[in-house]
Amino acid sequence: MKEKMDVELSIEVTEDHASARIRFVNTNKENIYFDQHGISYEDIDYGHCFKIIDQDDLKIDYCKIGTPGTLKPEYFITLETYDSLIVNFSLTDIYQFKKGNKHLVQYSTYNRSHLGDEEFKKIESNITEMVIK
């Protein structure tokens, strides 16, 4: 089955802090399963889940290292047909931004939808512009 979902990224910037909100919507007729580590559920970024480019077309480096540990069945979240899941991140806790610069941000990661599933599926959101003042 080819998994179909909507992935919407929105960013809120206040003073020197940026928060990202990702909303996943299952548009399939069947359930989708998310690996919590793969999508960095509960504001724990286990991997480099964002593509961030500054106004000079330079990639912003990831500055925090996570350790996902062993993948277990209880780490999977079920998203039923037309249900949604929201994940929030503090971007300024895991990336170093230059104040005053424009940045383009996209949520981009891979999800393994079942334990033992060797195939990873790419998940990408819209691209959003932000400036840390």
UniProtKB/TrEMBL annotation:
Superkingdom of this protein's organism: Bacteria
Protein name: Uncharacterized protein
Species assigned in the record: Niastella yeongjuensis
